[in-house]
Structure formats: C-alpha cells, structure tokens
Amino acid sequence: MPVATGFDYVLVLEWLGEDDQRTGAGLNDFLPSIGVRSELCVCQSWEDVRQALNRAAATVGTKGVPTVHLETHGSNPWIGPAEEA
C-alpha cells in the first residue's frame, strides 16, 4: 500500500569530533542551492540531540515537518573496546 510522505525542511544534526571536517555545515550550506530549506544544529552530546529533536517536534506548526539528517562520523571500531566505539 503506497504511503504519501513529505517534509518541509532538513534538520541537520551535526555531532562530530573536534578534528572532523564539518560536513553537516557543508550540507546545510549546499541544500538551499537546490531549493531545499535546512537548519543546522551542532551537537556535543546525546542530550543536545534529544533537545534538538524536541524543539523540531514542538515547532512543526510554525516551521513544518523536518526530515532529520544525522551527521556523525563515529570512531574507529578497531581501536579500544567495542562499547566505546
């Protein structure tokens, strides 16, 4: 059964390491050039991510429905315990 979906803007949640290239900011800069509205939220913790998602949910009536892009690079899984990756 087909289900219609859509979004009004892209919410870019950028949670990167200190030395990582700011690829979320780059995506946020690029999207308007193809006619897509976007918002960048730089996160430093899971709490920041949670708060950004709660703000997006609370503002659907004014900003519209976001599609969420998580920009994270993770860590090398071969270094250290798997629980810390």
Question: Can you give me a brief rundown of this structure?
Answer:
With 85 residues, the chain is of the alpha/beta class.
What does this structure look like?
With 85 residues, the chain is of the alpha/beta class. The protein has a domain at 9-67. It is 29% helix and 20% strand. The protein has helices at 23-30, 46-58, 60-63, and strands at 9-14, 38-42, 66-71. A three-stranded parallel sheet has the order 2-1-3, sandwiched between helices. Helix 1 (23-30) links the parallel strand 1 and strand 2 (38-42).
Shape: globular
SSE order in H/E notation? EHEHHE
DSSP E strands, number: 3
Largest sheet: 3 strands, parallel
Radius of gyration: 15 Å
Total of DSSP H or I helical runs spanning 4+ residues: 3
The parts where pLDDT drops under 50 for at least 5 residues are none
For the biggest β-sheet, the strand order reads 2-1-3
Mean pLDDT over all positions = 91
- Helix content class: 25-40%
Q: Span from first to last CA? A: 38 Å
Strand proportion: 15-25%
Structural class: alpha/beta
Give the helices and strands, then pairings.
Blueprint: E1 9-14, H1 23-30, E2 38-42, H2 46-58, H3 60-63, E3 66-71
Parallel strand pairs: 1-2, 1-3
